[in-house]
Amino acid sequence: xxxxxxxxxxxxxxxxxxxxxxxxxxxxxxxxxxxxxxxxxxxxxxxxxxxxxxxxxxxxxxxxxxxxxxxxxxxxxxxxxxxxxxxxxxxxxxxx
Length: 96
Description:
The protein is an all-alpha fold and 96 residues long.
């Protein structure tokens, strides 16, 4: 019954790929906004929209990760309580 959750860690290559992908996507959008055939105000609005979307995505990722970690902690506490109860239980003990 001693099931220890496996801690998953990303490799350096996966981390590098995620960073490079984010950087490339941000660069592509920035270049697209810069070369867009529109006025400066429209390009500025688009740039602010991309900035807002980017910060919102980071916030959402953090909230999802925090909620998942909180669920894992509660699960571990419940598992520890159950193991303690099972360890203290003696089926041959007579009632007082």
